[in-house]
Amino acid sequence: MSQATITRRYRFCAAHRLHTDQLSAEENWATFGKCNNPNGHGHNYVVFVSVKGDIDPSTHQVLDGQRLDAIVERTVVQRFDHQDLNQDVEFATQTTTGENLVLLIWDLLVKEIPAGRLVKVGVIETRDNYFEYSGSAEGTRKEHEVRHG
Ligand code: NI
What we know:
By secondary structure, this protein is α+β, with helices and mostly antiparallel strands. It contains four helices and five strands.
């Protein structure tokens, strides 16, 4: 049976500040620049979710798009839209970089999507910043498992 990958696009708006307590104030500024502004700032984030699968012989599609939309809406969009990412429990000890955000979104989705079918998550943060992660579809990231025991 032929396989194909479908990518759907989602959006949320959120605030954040790039800062880590592991660095001094001067080091934070040197590392993150204006993104370390104490007042924070916002982005119109765009999230791409790619799912692969067999092309169903009756629907000629690899998935039920409405079902994926419901999962992403409940797991990602409702969680982050119009929120301060720095206040999210998963960012209590992590900096809200695009890298960490795309890894977190992967972790949230991989638990909800049938094993092996999540191919890639992409996050556009700004006009010139795009992050993506294609982790093990068999589970969450190793660091994640270690951190949560
Ligand atoms: Ni930013």
